[in-house]
């Protein structure tokens, strides 16, 4: 994986159903080439939702790590 700069870290563990996508969509729109957003989510449903969103919007999921009940994802342009 090429070196990417973390533009912002979003802790979305307390976000509701569609909550993660609203904040993520806003931040991801500001990403430049070579930058990524680090997203912390709670639950597999949120992880799947964000993966689907990234694919539809043309973003790349560079990394996904499971840490207990949380998922840490790295999403780039």
Question: What is the ordering of alpha helices and beta strands?
Answer: EHEHEE
Strand order of the largest sheet: 1-2-4-3
State the shape: globular
Q: Which CATH architecture would you pick?
A: 2-Layer Sandwich
In terms of structural class, how would the helical and strand content be classed?
alpha+beta
CATH class: Alpha Beta
Distance between the termini: 14 Å
Strand content: 35-45%
Number of domains: 1
Radius of gyration, in Å, reads 11 Å
Keywords:
77 residues, alpha+beta, Translation Initiation Factor IF3, four-stranded mixed beta sheet, 4 strands
Detailed description of the structure:
This protein is an alpha+beta fold and 77 residues long. The protein has a single domain (5-76), classed as TusA-like domain (Translation Initiation Factor IF3, 2-Layer Sandwich). The protein contains 2 helices and 4 strands. It has a 4-stranded mixed β-sheet with strand order 1-2-4-3, with helices on one face. The protein is globular. It starts with a strand and ends with a strand. 21% of the residues are buried.
